[in-house]
Amino acid sequence: MTDRPDPSPGAPARDLVPDDDLVLLTCAEMQAAERYAMRGAGGGGDESASGSTLMEAAGAGVANAVIERFLPQPVAVLCGPGNNGGDGFVIARHLAAAGWPVRVGLLGERAKLTGDAMWAAILWEGAVEPVSAGLLAGRPLVVDALFGAGLKRPIEGKAAEVIEMINSRGLACIGVDMPSGLEGDTGRILGHAPRCAMTVTFFRPKPAHLSVNGRLLCGELRVVDIGIPRAALKMVDARQWRNEPPLWQAALRTPSLADHKYVRGHVMVAGGETMTGAARLAALAARRIGAGLVTIAAPSAAVSVYQAAEPGNIVAPLDGAGAFRQLAADPRRNVLVVGPGAGATPATRRLVAEALATGRACVLDADALTAFSGDPAALFGDIKGPVVLTPHDGEFARLFPGLRPDLGKLDRARQAARLAGAVVLLKGADTIVAAPDGRAVINANAPPWLATAGAGDVLSGMIAGLAAQGMTLFAAAAAAVWMHGAAAARFGPGLIAEDLPVQLPQVLQSLAS
Ligand SMILES: NC(=O)C1=CN([C@@H]2O[C@H](COP(=O)(O)OP(=O)(O)OC[C@H]3O[C@@H](n4cnc5c(N)ncnc54)[C@H](O)[C@@H]3O)[C@@H](O)[C@H]2O)[C@H](O)CC1
Ligand SMILES: [K+]
């Protein structure tokens, strides 16, 4: 990491940089990329590919992955009525050519196949049977080429039957493009979906591959190149990425010898009166991740509790109405955190209003969100400066009742960010960070043991600590979520929230090297 300008006032906040290797494509964007690759097909540029060459590359890519990962054995290739099925016929041909005993089942009539899938079926010289449980006799390896990006409705009938049989018998299954039934853009399961040992997708992963359902169903995820040029990404202009360091590592601040604590930023956390631990965790996390100073603005009844705690925190009593605004008047307190342990009360709503009125970067978490359930407009109306909201599913549903779960997590987070005019970090094992301009990242490194009380308080402090050092709230939120997962992964099972800040120095060092 090279040296960077100090976050002196006026220096533009350092933002996330797109990375084509981490981009995720929705089904529509993948189809657009496919069309781009085919744009010259039939007399066009030398780079252009036909649908059949793409399908041939896709099928060959899956077959090679199977041959690489599994010992030669009987295989049942289940083909659907579309191009996912077409891939299946190509895979069958390649595995048979490699000497594997292959049976092919087709959902629907061969005569109804069209376009590239029809050609792929013609090139398969072996028998084609109807898709049925009989195909799974003898515990073959299963290739699931029933449905991919074209899944339109819940799976039923024969397809549902064989999928349930794959799951109940624990057959090894390979998902072509995705486990059939997993909806590519949302990660929802439409009816049924097989648990796969491996899933092979093409060109770039889809959002569903990183969703909780995707990570539970896909097994090992492989991405194969099928000849779509990288230039297609420029045309598609996808705005969602897998959350990994290359997106925001350059925006992290490197401590410099010229530093004094104020250039590293000053976070102020509004402390709760009774649940004092939450603000203390946030404060500790903000300091561990590099903020120069942290102040806990403490209700007078709890001042002594905070003063008796971590010596490195500054404790400022909150005496009377407007006290928070007065403390926040100091421009060096450049990031404000409200919510952890605050209580979902009118007093907390006032604190939020005071914080937002400063126009300074604000992290609103937990009770600062719940305090506005039933009246989210009152919150959104006050948002002027940079703000990040960090709801878990329950808080999200209270703040954005109109954004139904069947929309899919990515779309819900995006629409919420646009609605609120703020960065929205929707927590979970597949946390999504969405910006009001439509950019979004999906995080996939969080281990299950991160689901422990106080972990969210730590996260809000980490976001504030990174923003205090000069990152945009979008970049800070993305970086903090990844480091949060990395810290938990380092510690392992048995993790409690207090362990997270202790892991941060090693995570930072791993990013510096
Ligand atoms: N995009 C690319 O670059 C490439 C994609 N390939 C493969 O093609 C599929 C997408 O193919 P498509 O024909 O669009 O859709 P599907 O094969 O997934 O299925 C559509 C087919 O199925 C019917 N259908 C949808 N849902 C159901 C349901 N629940 N029950 C019954 N039938 C259903 C629908 O009516 C259509 O007939 C992609 O995933 C890749 O595998 C290329 O091979 C390579 C290039
Ligand atoms: K599939």
From TrEMBL:
<dbReference type="InterPro" id="IPR036652">
    <property type="entry name" value="YjeF_N_dom_sf"/>
</dbReference>
<dbReference type="InterPro" id="IPR000631">
    <property type="entry name" value="CARKD"/>
</dbReference>
<dbReference type="GO" id="GO:0046872">
    <property type="term" value="F:metal ion binding"/>
</dbReference>
<keyword id="KW-0479">Metal-binding</keyword>
<feature type="domain" description="YjeF N-terminal">
    <location>
        <begin position="30"/>
        <end position="234"/>
    </location>
</feature>
<dbReference type="Pfam" id="PF01256">
    <property type="entry name" value="Carb_kinase"/>
</dbReference>
<dbReference type="GO" id="GO:0046496">
    <property type="term" value="P:nicotinamide nucleotide metabolic process"/>
</dbReference>
<feature type="binding site">
    <location>
        <begin position="427"/>
        <end position="431"/>
    </location>
    <ligand>
        <name>AMP</name>
    </ligand>
</feature>
<comment type="subunit">
    <text>Homotetramer.</text>
</comment>
<protein>
    <recommendedName>
        <fullName>Bifunctional NAD(P)H-hydrate repair enzyme</fullName>
        <ecNumber>4.2.1.136</ecNumber>
        <ecNumber>5.1.99.6</ecNumber>
    </recommendedName>
</protein>
<feature type="binding site">
    <location>
        <position position="180"/>
    </location>
    <ligand>
        <name>K(+)</name>
    </ligand>
</feature>
<feature type="binding site">
    <location>
        <position position="177"/>
    </location>
    <ligand>
        <name>(6S)-NADPHX</name>
    </ligand>
</feature>
<dbReference type="Pfam" id="PF03853">
    <property type="entry name" value="YjeF_N"/>
</dbReference>
<feature type="binding site">
    <location>
        <begin position="83"/>
        <end position="87"/>
    </location>
    <ligand>
        <name>(6S)-NADPHX</name>
    </ligand>
</feature>
<feature type="domain" description="YjeF C-terminal">
    <location>
        <begin position="244"/>
        <end position="511"/>
    </location>
</feature>
<dbReference type="GO" id="GO:0052855">
    <property type="term" value="F:ADP-dependent NAD(P)H-hydrate dehydratase activity"/>
</dbReference>
<comment type="similarity">
    <text>In the N-terminal section; belongs to the NnrE/AIBP family.</text>
</comment>
<keyword id="KW-0456">Lyase</keyword>
<dbReference type="InterPro" id="IPR029056">
    <property type="entry name" value="Ribokinase-like"/>
</dbReference>
<keyword id="KW-0511">Multifunctional enzyme</keyword>
<dbReference type="InterPro" id="IPR030677">
    <property type="entry name" value="Nnr"/>
</dbReference>
<keyword id="KW-0520">NAD</keyword>
<keyword id="KW-0413">Isomerase</keyword>
<feature type="binding site">
    <location>
        <position position="84"/>
    </location>
    <ligand>
        <name>K(+)</name>
    </ligand>
</feature>
<feature type="binding site">
    <location>
        <position position="144"/>
    </location>
    <ligand>
        <name>K(+)</name>
    </ligand>
</feature>
<dbReference type="GO" id="GO:0005524">
    <property type="term" value="F:ATP binding"/>
</dbReference>
<dbReference type="InterPro" id="IPR017953">
    <property type="entry name" value="Carbohydrate_kinase_pred_CS"/>
</dbReference>
<feature type="binding site">
    <location>
        <position position="456"/>
    </location>
    <ligand>
        <name>AMP</name>
    </ligand>
</feature>
<feature type="binding site">
    <location>
        <position position="392"/>
    </location>
    <ligand>
        <name>(6S)-NADPHX</name>
    </ligand>
</feature>
<keyword id="KW-0521">NADP</keyword>
<keyword id="KW-0067">ATP-binding</keyword>
<dbReference type="GO" id="GO:0052856">
    <property type="term" value="F:NAD(P)HX epimerase activity"/>
</dbReference>
<feature type="binding site">
    <location>
        <position position="457"/>
    </location>
    <ligand>
        <name>(6S)-NADPHX</name>
    </ligand>
</feature>
<feature type="binding site">
    <location>
        <position position="341"/>
    </location>
    <ligand>
        <name>(6S)-NADPHX</name>
    </ligand>
</feature>
<dbReference type="InterPro" id="IPR004443">
    <property type="entry name" value="YjeF_N_dom"/>
</dbReference>
<comment type="similarity">
    <text>Belongs to the NnrE/AIBP family.</text>
</comment>
<keyword id="KW-0547">Nucleotide-binding</keyword>
<feature type="binding site">
    <location>
        <position position="278"/>
    </location>
    <ligand>
        <name>(6S)-NADPHX</name>
    </ligand>
</feature>
<comment type="function">
    <text>Bifunctional enzyme that catalyzes the epimerization of the S- and R-forms of NAD(P)HX and the dehydration of the S-form of NAD(P)HX at the expense of ADP, which is converted to AMP. This allows the repair of both epimers of NAD(P)HX, a damaged form of NAD(P)H that is a result of enzymatic or heat-dependent hydration.</text>
</comment>
<comment type="function">
    <text>Catalyzes the dehydration of the S-form of NAD(P)HX at the expense of ADP, which is converted to AMP. Together with NAD(P)HX epimerase, which catalyzes the epimerization of the S- and R-forms, the enzyme allows the repair of both epimers of NAD(P)HX, a damaged form of NAD(P)H that is a result of enzymatic or heat-dependent hydration.</text>
</comment>
<keyword id="KW-0630">Potassium</keyword>
<feature type="binding site">
    <location>
        <begin position="148"/>
        <end position="154"/>
    </location>
    <ligand>
        <name>(6S)-NADPHX</name>
    </ligand>
</feature>
